[in-house]
Specification:
With 268 residues, this protein is α/β, with parallel strands linked by helices. The chain has 6 helices and 17 strands. The strands form 4 sheets. Strands 1, 2, 3, 4, 5, 8 and 17 form a 7-stranded mixed sheet that branches. It has a 6-stranded mixed sheet with strand order 9-10-11-12-15-16, with helices on one face.
Amino acid sequence: MKIAVAQLVVSHDKQRNLDKALTYIVWAKAEKANFIVFPEAFMSLMSINTTIKHADIAESIDGPFVKTLAAAAKKHKIYIIFGIYESKFGEQERSYNTIIFLNDEGQLIHSYRKTHLYDAFCYNESWNIIPGDNGFTPVKTKLGTIGILVCYELRFPEISRTLALQGADILIVPTAWINGVMKEEHLLTLSQARAVENTVFVCIANQVGNDYAGCSSIYNPMGIIMSSKSKDEGLIFADIDIDQIHACREQLPCLRQRLPKLYKLDYD
């Protein structure tokens, strides 16, 4: 499988972002990619000091933003993962921060509402976002088994481990990781750690510009960077060989060496 990861500057204009996505899908397919990943909250830039309510720009999962990309997935025969603000009936202020997963027939095969919200570093995502509660289940596809987590959730190793223990071959992490002191280092270190400790591929698709950190990367199961970007827009590509996971685990069998009976799991 060839995967493409898009590192993009997101605007306030949903249509502009959608048009950019369509352009990048064509580019990815021209490079023979089977799969393209866009960043978290790709639907619209929501600045920290904006007066626009998230509920006002949010759409349902069967709204025009998702439908347009579903048509593109079907037309170009490509899997697509991307982030939207999903509306909730009766909610006048907030929205869900949702990741959409489309197969190469344009069908919605999974959606994940971010559960662990970024209430840290003097920011409160929960002011604008409704936390999801749909749990962590990887998605089996003909390309491999895919686990999804979002941005801040990289800081919770339990999520990645839960997905890996259920058979995830690839962890897809759409992000809107903000710049800041040590923030880039945290993103890179955590991403590499999630790959190494679970012996899986990890794909980070981050926004760039608008105070976002960039540094989108694809890691192999040994934590080696296969492809990466720094601070510019564009696509990165990697050929994912699932058999590499099995070979890696023969040398590094940490998952099967676990002793869960010795681990206390009920602490808070």
